[in-house]
Design a protein that fits this description.
The protein has 89 residues and is mainly α. The protein is built from five helices and no strands.
Length: 89
C-alpha cells in the first residue's frame, strides 16, 4: 500500500529522524564508510527499545573491528529498527 504525502508528514519527528538515519546507514554501507555507519548506529540507539538498543551499540563497535560483520549486521538490524517504529495514525 502506498503512503500518501499526508501520512508521511503526519508522522512525528522521531520517526522521520529514524528513517533519515536508516538512509544514511545504507549510504555508509554502499560507500564502505564504516565510521559513518558506526555513527548512524550510535545515533539510532536513542530511538530504539531494548534489545535493539544493545544490538546497535554492538554494531557501532563492530564498525571499528569487523567491517564485513558490521555491514551484515546493519542489513538485518535496519529492518527491525524500522519495524519498531509506531504505526502511522
Amino acid at each position: 500500500m502506498a503512503t500518501s504525502r499526508h501520512d508521511s508528514l503526519s508522522r512525528g519527528p522521531a520517526t522521520r529522524a529514524v528513517g533519515t538515519l536508516c538512509v544514511g546507514g545504507d549510504w555508509a554501507c554502499a560507500h564502505g564508510d564504516l565510521e559513518a555507519l558506526g555513527d548512524v548506529a550510535a545515533r539510532l540507539v536513542s530511538y530504539t527499545p531494548e534489545p535493539l538498543h544493545r544490538e546497535l551499540v554492538a554494531l557501532s563497535g563492530l564498525c571499528h573491528t569487523d567491517p564485513d560483520q558490521a555491514t551484515a549486521a546493519w542489513l538485518q538490524l535496519k529492518g527491525r529498527v524500522l519495524r519498531s517504529l509506531p504505526a502511522p495514525s
